[in-house]
Amino acid sequence: MNERKTNLKLGLAGLGAIGLPIARRIDAGAIPGISLVAVSVRDEAKARKAMAGFRAQPQLTGLAALSEVADVIVEGIPSKHFLDVAEPAVARGRIFLPLSVGALIDHMHLIDRAAETGARIIVPTGALLGLDAVRATAEGKIASATITTRKPPAGLAGAPLLVARGLSVDGLKEPLRVFAGSAREAIAGFPANVNVAVALSLAGIGPDRTQIEIWADPGVTRNTHTVTVKSDSSDLTMTIENTTDTENPRTGRITALSALAALRRLVSPLVVGS
User: Fold this and answer.
1) 40, 111, 113, 243 - which has most CB atoms within 10 Å?
2) Domain co-membership, 139 together with 70
3) 81, 107, 109, 225: which one is catalytic?
4) 225 has catalytic annotation
């Protein structure tokens, strides 16, 4: 008999715009069968203050130590620290949910390693939509996949590619296309901004064939992504407008909710969507 495990222990890498909402919901019992046992943060005093009212206080650990105590690890930290949490989680055969999915395409050896250890790498949909439909079309033949991202200029300010080119988006009066190219190229230049493009590419035809345009647009107040996929089974056109976090305009509020939905999927007796 195949028994579904419903007493999963959760570890969070990061307690910011993504991690804190997840921590609050899990502590409040929003997903029966999952409990928060550990958190890894840079500022422990700030974390303790943020979790002061929690019903059960998780332990504070280093990134590598999360996989020693947790069955499931959700990563929501700057991509430069990605391997510090990803490699131990995969090595120990844990369920790993990366939100800095852009970092994954530079470390695809983790997938082969997961096959050896029994780990699972589950990429939440994040701030995008329709990845179930894209995965379905990928079972056939996809001819093209593109994504156009429009963000308020503040959401792109400081991106490495803009800094390298000396390109400022301050004070824009009209939309400015700041990038056009592949998802692989985009995530290198905008590591905190276009994880959605990498998620789309992994669901479909890969980071080199998936194309993206990035616009700094003073006329939008939300991070907006339009996906177009053409395939032998169907043509898809999908647009999502995400409300951003007030403290971190690079992050859509739906990102944390997407991670929660992915966690619920692990323990739910009913799963909707392929």
Assistant:
1) 40
2) no
3) 225
4) yes
